[in-house]
C-alpha cells in the first residue's frame, strides 16, 4: 500500500519517534571537534555513515548519497542558544541556509509534534472508556445525566466510575471516504453529503479527511477549519481501483488514533465489500476495535446494481459468491464494527438516505456520554470482558459498548 507523505522540518525539537538521525553522533562531538573544522568534518561523516546505514537497512530510500544528506541534517542540528550536553553550538543554520526537509510517511494529525522522546515509565493500569447513548421510549436523547445516574458492570461485577466525560468535550473524527470504483457515478452527491456532515458537527469538533481505495490517502489532518475540510472533501477523486477496507481501517487506527488524547471517532462511508486487503482481515479489524477506545459509525451505500456479473443476470460458476451475498456479508461486518465500538451502522440506499445517515451520526456524537473506569481486576492477557450499563431513569433505553478486549502490552507514560 502507498503511504501519504508530509514535509517535516528536521531539527532537535521536532524529530519524530523514528529518528532520522542518530542523536548520539551530535552529542559525541566535543567542544574541540565543533570548533575544529577537521574535527567537525569527521563528526559529520560519522553521523552521515550511521544515518545511511540506518536508512539502508529500512530500505526506505536509495542508499546512494545518504552520507551527504545526513551531513546536511547535522549542519542544522544545533540551533543558536540551545546547547546539547558536550556540544558547543554554532549557528549552522546561517551556514546552510534553509532547513532540510524530508518526506515522512505519517498521519497528518494536526497536533503539535513533541520533542525528542523521553524515557517512558511502564505501568500495568487499564482505563476503560464506554460510549453510551441514553434515550426515552420515543427515541429522544436524554440530556443532563451525571455519573451518579449510571452503573457500569464488567463481567457481572459493578465498577466504580472514575469520571463522566462532559458532553461538550470535543471529538476527533476521522471521516473515511471510499473512493474506489464502486463510487464512480455518485461521488459528487457523496461529497455534498460529507460536507453537510462536517458542518453539522459542533464547532469544537476536529475532523480529518481520509480517502481510500487499495491505498490510504490522507487529505487533511485534524482541524476545526470548516473551509479547509470542505476543500479537502472536494479534492477526493474516484480512482476506479479496488477496495482495501480492512487495511485502511487498521492503518488509520494505528497511525492517527494510537496516542491521540480525548474522544475519538471514525465515520466510515463505504459499501463494505473488501477485495484488496493484504495486511489484515475482518476478524483482525474487529479485534483491533475491541482493544481501542475509538467509536465507529459506518454508513453503507448500496452498490448492488454495480455488482457484475450479477447485474447481467448470467449464471454464476460453481463456487462463485454472488455480489448480493458479499454485500450482505459486508453489511454484517459494518454492523459489528459499529456495535462493538459503541457506535452504529446506517444503510443509505439513496442520496437522501445518505444525508439522513450523516445527520444522525453528527447528532449522536453531540449526545453521546462517555464513562471512564479502572477495572477492579487488572489483567493484560488479551481476554474479552463484557460490559453492561444501566441508568437510574425509568423507561430509559441504554445503548453502550458491549465489552472490550484487554491489551497484552504495558501502558507507557512519558
Total individual domains: 3
CATH-defined fold name of the largest domain: Rossmann fold
Summing up helix and strand content along with how strands pair, one would put the structural category as: alpha+beta
Major beta sheet summary: 6 strands, mixed
Give a concise summary:
The chain has about 425 residues and is an alpha+beta fold. About 30% of the residues lie in helices and about 25% in strands.
Describe the structure.
The protein is of the alpha+beta class and 414 residues long. It is globular and about 50 Å long. It contains eleven helices and 18 strands. Helix 3 (37-58) crosses helix 4 (66-75), helix 6 runs antiparallel to helix 7 and helix 6 (187-200) packs parallel to helix 11 (351-367).
Write the layout of secondary structure elements.
Elements: E1 5-9, H1 23-27, H2 31-35, H3 37-58, H4 66-75, H5 92-96, E2 101-105, E3 121-123, E4 128-135, E5 150-154, E6 157-159, E7 161-165, E8 171-178, H6 187-200, E9 206-212, E10 216-223, H7 226-234, H8 245-257, E11 263-270, H9 282-291, E12 294-301, H10 323-341, E13 344-348, H11 351-367, E14 369-373, E15 384-391, E16 397-400, E17 403-405, E18 411-413
Parallel strand pairs: 8-9, 8-11, 11-12, 12-13
Antiparallel strand pairs: 1-2, 3-18, 4-14, 4-16, 5-6, 5-15, 7-14, 9-10, 15-17
Helix pairs in contact: 3-4, 6-7, 6-11, 8-9, 9-10
Amino acid at each position: 500500500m502507498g503511504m501519504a507523505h508530509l514535509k517535516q522540518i528536521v531539527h532537535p525539537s521536532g524529530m519524530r519517534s523514528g529518528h532520522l538521525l542518530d542523536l548520539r553522533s551530535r552529542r559525541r562531538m566535543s567542544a574541540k571537534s565543533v570548533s575544529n573544522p577537521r574535527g567537525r568534518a569527521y563528526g559529520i561523516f560519522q553521523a552521515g555513515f550511521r544515518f545511511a546505514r540506518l536508512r539502508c537497512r529500512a530500505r526506505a530510500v536509495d542508499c546512494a548519497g545518504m552520507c551527504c544528506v545526513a551531513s546536511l541534517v547535522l549542519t542544522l542540528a544545533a540551533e543558536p542558544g540551545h546547547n546539547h550536553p558536550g556540544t558547543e553550538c554554532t549557528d549552522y543554520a546561517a551556514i546552510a541556509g534553509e532547513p532540510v526537509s524530508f518526506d515522512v510517511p505519517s498521519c497528518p494529525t494536526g497536533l503539535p509534534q513533541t520533542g525528542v522522546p523521553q524515557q517512558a515509565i511502564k505501568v500495568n493500569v487499564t482505563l476503560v472508556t464506554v460510549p453510551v447513548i441514553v434515550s426515552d421510549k420515543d427515541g429522544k436523547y436524554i440530556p443532563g445525566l451525571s455519573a451518579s445516574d449510571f452503573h457500569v458492570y464488567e463481567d457481572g461485577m459493578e465498577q466504580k466510575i472514575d469520571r463522566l466525560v462532559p458532553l461538550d468535550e470535543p471529538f476527533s473524527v476521522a471521516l473515511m471516504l471510499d473512493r474506489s470504483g464502486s463510487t464512480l457515478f455518485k461521488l459528487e452527491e457523496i461529497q455534498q453529503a460529507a460536507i453537510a456532515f462536517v458542518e453539522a458537527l459542533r464547532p469544537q469538533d476536529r475532523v480529518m479527511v481520509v480517502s481510500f481505495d487499495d491505498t490510504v490517502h490522507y487529505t487533511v489532518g485534524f482541524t476545526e477549519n470548516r473551509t479547509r475540510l470542505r476543500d479537502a472533501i472536494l479534492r477526493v477523486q474516484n480512482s476506479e481501483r479496488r477496495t482495501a477496507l480492512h487495511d485502511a481501517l487498521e492503518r488509520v487506527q494505528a497511525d492517527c488514533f494510537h496516542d491521540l488524547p480525548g474522544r475519538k471517532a471514525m465515520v466510515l462511508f463505504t459499501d463494505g465489500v473488501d477485495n484488496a486487503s493484504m495486511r489484515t482481515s475482518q476478524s483482525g479489524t474487529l479485534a483491533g476495535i475491541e482493544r481501542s477506545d475509538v467509536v465507529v459509525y459506518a454508513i453503507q451505500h448500496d452498490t448492488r446494481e454495480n455488482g457484475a456479473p450479477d447485474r447481467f443476470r448470467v449464471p454464476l460458476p460453481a463456487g462463485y459468491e454472488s455480489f448480493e451475498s458479499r454485500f450482505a456479508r459486508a453489511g454484517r461486518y459494518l454492523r459489528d464494527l459499529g456495535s462493538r465500538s459503541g457506535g452504529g451502522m446506517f444503510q443509505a440506499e439513496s442520496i437522501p438516505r445518505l444525508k439522513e445517515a450523516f445527520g444522525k451520526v453528527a447528532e449522536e456524537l453531540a449526545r453521546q456520554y462517555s464513562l471512564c473506569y479502572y477495572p477492579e481486576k487488572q489483567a493484560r492477557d488479551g481476554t474479552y470482558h463484557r460490559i453492561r450499563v444501566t441508568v437510574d431513569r425509568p423507561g430509559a433505553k441504554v445503548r453502550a459498548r458491549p465489552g472490550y478486549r484487554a491489551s497484552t502490552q504495558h501502558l507507557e507514560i512519558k
